[in-house]
Write a structure and sequence with these properties.
The longest helix has 30 residues. The protein contains twelve helices and eleven strands. Helix content is 35%, strand content 16%. The protein is α/β, with parallel strands linked by helices. The chain is globular, with a radius of gyration of 19 Å.
């Protein structure tokens, strides 16, 4: 099971200029998964990030981030520490990779599954407070969330799924007494991360996918992440259902699959806009004195308010009364610039 960053596609050399589709796509898996199999169809062996996306986005570098994703690690009382430490590792690892390959300031698009989306949100919160690591925060343009529990989830469901994985490296079956102890407090909430992410929410294009089919666990069927938790209750967010159970949401076996085409369309559209917007962000960021940053996690970073402005959202037709989008393509004129003109 690969840990850290794995390069799935190097990307062709191209000048990073306005209008280009030069981006870094970074995939982050969820619980009971790894950085390769999460995106791979077991029947065909097709990894859609490695085998399909480069056919349409050949300039994109595609990276997959791996970490110790056992359910027990992220569902215990120390879950918040595990999430934060994993998020910090993602920020540092991604910065080192981009710095060593001269790719800093390239636009970033995250693709996340399950708890991976919580880790990405936490990593952006952390990056926004760090002068020397702000590359991830300023450069991130969009995030695709596949079945991320933005509000809450049931511990027992994930632990039952983990028990079904006994044939793999993930097979960490908990003892009966420990499992019962977890079930006494069965619901785990990620609302605190969502609340911290709140001040940043309008700075990124976001697409939330939810599972349309339940997962069979023993003799019952259950939604691992119901759509009420998988779709953020934000004014500017795209959404779509995927007609599979949770663990198959990110496994596309063909470029003709409708769900794959929805994800591809979003990646193509985001890639077309990303370079222009991120370049303007960096122009503003460079002009902003670094000492205006704050390490107080409870207060928004002043840089954030200099580089990004809610006024710009109004100028681009994204008002506070606009409802969340339920289609794969946003309405014309609704894409925020995320930078003061």
């Amino acid at each position: 099971m690969p840990l850290g960053l794995t390069c799935l596609h190097q990307g062709e050399t191209a000048e990073c200029s306005e209008g280009s589709q030069v981006v870094d796509i970074v995939a982050v898996h969820g619980l009971n998964e790894d950085s390769v199999d999460t995106w791979t169809d077991s029947c065909t062996g097709i990894n859609w990030l490695r085998d399909l996306i480069p056919k349409r986005l050949n300039w994109a570098q595609i990276l997959a981030y791996g970490y110790d994703a056992s359910a027990a690690r992220f569902l215990s009382k120390g879950a918040s520490i595990s999430i934060r430490e994993t998020a910090k590792d993602l920020v540092n690892t991604l910065y080192s990779e981009r710095e060593s390959t001269n790719r800093l300031r390239r636009p970033i698009i995250f693709v996340c599954h399950g708890i991976g989306g919580i880790i990405v949100k936490e990593s952006l919160i952390y990056s926004s407070t760090q002068d020397h690591l702000r590359d991830q925060f300023v450069s991130t343009y969009a995030i695709l969330f596949f079945g991320t529990p933005h509000e809450r989830t049931r511990k027992s469901t994930w632990l039952d799924l983990e028990k079904l994985s006994t044939g793999s490296w993930l097979g960490r079956v908990l003892s009966t007494d420990r499992l019962l102890r977890y079930k006494k407090e069965d619901v785990i909430s990620f609302q605190s991360v969502t609340d911290e992410f709140g001040p940043l929410k309008e700075h990124f294009r976001m697409f939330c996918f939810w599972e349309e089919l339940p997962t069979k666990i023993g003799g019952r069927y259950e939604y691992i992440v119901p759509n009420t938790s998988a779709v953020m209750k934000l004014e500017v967010v795209e959404r779509a259902g995927i007609p599979t159970p949770h663990l198959r949401m990110t496994k596309f076996d063909s470029e003709f699959t409708s769900s794959y085409r929805t994800a591809l369309e979003a990646l193509l559209r985001y890639s077309q806009d990303a370079q222009r917007v991120v370049a303007r962000r960096w122009d503003k960021a460079v002009a902003t004195p670094s000492e205006t940053h704050t390490d107080d996690r409870n207060e928004p970073s002043p840089l954030m308010h200099h580089v990004y402005s809610s006024d710009t959202l109004q100028e681009n037709g994204v008002g506070t009364s606009q409802s969340a989008m339920s289609h794969s393509c946003p309405l014309e004129g609704s894409a925020p610039e995320f930078v003061v003109g």
